[in-house]
Amino acid sequence: MKYSLLIVSLLVAQLANAQAKKQITMDDLFKTNTFRMKSVPGFNGMKDGKNYTKIEQHGDTQIIKKYNLETGAEVEVLFDNTQTLFNGKPVKFDDYSFSKDEKKLMLKAESQNVYRRSVLNKVYVYDIATKSIASVDNDKVLHATFSPDGKAVAYVKGNNLYIINFETGVNPQVTTDGEWNKIINGNCDWVYEEEFEFTRAFDWSPDGKYIAFYRFDESKVPQFNMAMYGGLYPKDYQYKYPKAGEPNSVIEIKVYDVASGNTIKADVGTETNQYIPRIKWTNDPKTLCIYRMNRLQNKLELLFANAATGKSEVIYTEENKSYVEVNDNMEFLPDNSSFIFTSEASGYVHLHRWDWKKKKLTDLTPGKYDIADITGVDKTKKLVYYTAAENSPTERKLYVVNWDGKKRKTITKEDGTHAITPIEGYNYFLDKYSKINQPPVYYLRDADGKVLKTLEDNKGLKEVMADYDLGNIAIKEIDLGNGSTYWTWMITPPNFDPNKKYPVLMYQYSGPGSQEVADRFPIRDFFWHQMLAQKGYIVFCADGTGTGFRGEEFKKKTYLQLGKYESDDQIAIAKWLGTQTYVDKSRIGIWGWSYGGFMSSTCVFKSQDVFKMGIAVAPVTSWRYYDNIYTERYMRTPQENADGYDNNAPEKMAANLKAKYLLIHGTADDNVHFQNAVMLTDALIKANKEFDSEYYPNRNHGISGGNARPHLYKRMTDFILSNL
Questions:
Q1: Active-site option among 312, 567, 594, 622
Q2: Strands 538-543 and 583-593
């Protein structure tokens, strides 16, 4: 009897404990910032390799302090915005950086996004010794960048390139032909910024005597118009956007001689229908490296151009049967005859060393796994640090290897994801370490991986999470018996009972080289997905064919037919889920954003009876409407591959719709145009299909600002609760 009473008491206690746990609300997600994750704001390793700086902020007071790396002790205050005023007011800055000699600070304030990566700022330069502050320009500018000696700043305003010298007061206008929607100097056009993932299109030479810069002539690029609502008459926003198969900007690379004021044009060949996805100065301050790529993006050449004459020569060529990836993983070595870079030439992304004088390529990290990033190159010890997914596609660890590919060593041994920030000298690293169910901890580590100090442990977030009734999340590799395995994560409802049947909401992105299933925190929409799990849904994600860190063959299988294999996989995975004893196969839904919205739409239209419900946010509905750099990389042009464009386009499948379907888009989406939603809507109406839609006026691809984001997620939540 006593034993039975004890069991009952324990069960009651467990039930009471479960009932005491909190439920996630929309206010938690969007109003009170309940699950706020901390970082180390403004962390910056100093050149001496012994100290670092970070921002201390209390209200509008911002202080940049220097700390000792080993002891953590405060060394000095470098800047206090309440003590140094500009025109009698403190400068409230959003970002800061040092000049190379660390004698000056650049403070960027009043940030105003233009597109995804371009940001206008009011920019100030603060002299640490004299405690004086000056403005770079009376207006907001783009890409303010110190010269190597810290005496001058180059920047872009009104599509022209400028330099301001704070010692002489001279402020030359390097270019004068800049004009909106025609000529751009020193800044990228829209498609370069979005798809080649950079926006500052100029660079100082190592000795500061030259500035190399891009000149975009976008005169012949077709123009896209967006209505911006608010006044009595909408405003017409016009910008150049080259869709698949359409003309691009004509690119020139120019070199400006700071002393003489002369500008020369580098020789990039006679072909104008090509890309220049990067420029990078070599260790020789008179030699500029120019990346040249053909329109099909399957041939990449590196050119060396003379800064004084513009004459160039090809020193490296890489070709691929589908496409060549472009990134920033490249470092010139002190021998002035070689560089270290990443390439997929072996079938996986690996580190290579190319000696252009000996014409010799050395694979430094052979194996069937992908490198993520070059973290740094120690030119004294002849070492290269890098992160890789060596043991599993879902992990990232820090490794080191010498320049001959020998003495490779794992530095961070813990499973999970290590996001690394190196510190000058490579004696220390900042490690943002997390796992899928563990918020980030910011460690200061030495070169052997030993943790010296914890700079932020997110203890507060962990305590908050412990107060909420969260479902279990786990990563698993599944085998469908079709020749491929798939990495997945699954969130189960709290108090999950494997003997019950649950509805499933699948989430995915699925784009080429992407990855949603990784052992890191947080995954996309983690706490919103947890809220759905609390309401009784399993939330499931799988990375299918075409996703990254599985080697080139797996990633590039989707070439020329985006959407086919990705949707086949998601449909097959949904069917597999339907065979699991704990899944109600009549209640499986799918959602996604951008490429994920393209995929959720394709899956719902293509499978007909597998999915009960689908949500597409800002989806591509035909690749004919998307930009040419991204689309042609994977599909070639519509003129070459019409079937590839049309056979997997949701717009062409609209008549197949059977499921409940919600289509969401922002009317001012400069990336995936609202046109995609309009054309799909038209196709659905022609097919006499019932569906739901929601549009967000004047919102871009992220659909944010004001009450847009909470409204969007409430709309999706209500749709799921009503239809799944």
A1: 594
A2: unpaired
Beta bridge partners of 156: 142, 161
Element (H, E) at 55: strand 51-58
pLDDT bracket for residue 19 (50, 70, 90): low
The Cα 79–Cα 122 span in angstroms is 17
- Beta carbons within 10 angstroms of residue 415's beta carbon: 13
Q: Where are the domains of the chain?
A: 327-463, 468-723
Tokens coding 451: 């943790």
* 641 CB neighbour count, 10 Å cutoff: 21
The label of the residue with tokens 């206090």 reads: 80
Q: Is 594 a catalytic residue?
A: yes
- DSSP, collapsed to helix, strand or coil, labels residue 315 as strand
The answer to whether 141 touches 109, Cβ cutoff 8 Å, is no
Q: Please report, as a single letter, which amino acid is at residue 126.
A: Y
If you search the block for the tokens 């303010």, which residue do you land on? 144
C-alpha–C-alpha distance, residues 134 and 660, integer Å:
58
Catalytic residue among 370, 431, 669, 670: 669
Long-range contacts of 705-710 (CB under 8 A, 24+ apart): 708/666, 709/30, 710/26, 710/29, 710/30, 710/31
Task: Judge whether 340 and 353 are in contact, CB under 8 Å.
Answer: yes
Given 143, 352, 673, 701, the catalytic residue: 701
Full strand arrangement of the beta sheet holding 44-45? 44-45, 51-58, 61-68, 74-80
pLDDT of residue 678: 98
Question: Between 12 and 533, whose confidence is greater?
Answer: 533
- Mean pLDDT for the stretch of residues 543-558: 98
- Cα–Cα distance measured from residue 108 to residue 135, given in angstroms and rounded to the nearest whole number: 10
Residue located via tokens 């053909």: 294
Q: What is the mean pLDDT of the chain?
A: 96
140-155 burial: b if 16+ Cβ within 10 Å, else e: bbbbbbbbbebbbbbb
Question: Which pLDDT value is given to residue 70?
Answer: 84
**In Å, what is the CA distance from 668 to each residue of 197, 293, 671?**
21, 31, 9
Q: Measured between alpha carbons, how far is 409 from 398 in angstroms, rounded to an integer?
A: 9
Structure tokens that stand for 248 in this block? 């691009």
Euclidean distance between CA atoms 712 and 618, whole angstroms: 12
97 carries an active-site annotation: no
What is d(CA 154, CA 239) in angstroms, rounded to the nearest whole number?
25
Hey, CA dihedral for 321, 327, 329, 331, is it positive or negative? positive
Question: Contacts for 76-79 with beta carbons within 8 Å, 24 or more apart?
Answer: 78/53, 78/105, 78/128, 79/105, 79/107, 79/126, 79/128
Position 553 scores a pLDDT of 97
Q: Which long-range contacts (CB under 8 A, 24 or more apart) does 135-141 make?
A: 135/86, 136/164, 137/162, 137/164, 140/110, 140/112
Fold classified for 468-723: Rossmann fold (3.40.50)
Report the DSSP beta bridge partners of residue 134: 125
Kindly compute the dihedral angle of the four CA atoms of residues 578, 583, 588, 591, in this order, to the nearest 10 degrees.
Answer: -110
C-beta of residue 657 within 8 angstroms of C-beta of residue 604:
yes
> In 10 A of CB 715, how many CB atoms?
16
* Total count of residues recorded for the chain: 724
For residue 649, pLDDT beyond 50: yes
- The secondary structure of residue 470, as a DSSP letter, is P
Res. 125: pLDDT tops 90 = yes
In 115-186, at which residue ranges do the beta strands (DSSP E only) sit? 119-127, 132-135, 141-146, 152-157, 160-165, 183-185
Q: Which two tokens stand for residue 684?
A: 């659905």
**CA 386, 389, 391 angle in degrees (round to 5)?**
120
Q: Do strands 538-543 and 502-507 pair parallel, antiparallel, or not at all (unpaired)?
A: parallel
Give the contacts of 74 (CB within 8 A, at least 6 positions apart): 65, 66, 67
Could you please state the CATH topology (level 3) that the domain comprising 327-463 is classified under: Neuraminidase (2.120.10)
pLDDT band, very low/low/confident/very high, at 3 (cuts 50, 70, 90): very low
| Residue the block writes with tokens 């105003």 | 112
3-state secondary structure of 121: strand
Q: How many CB atoms neighbour CB 182 within 10 A?
A: 15
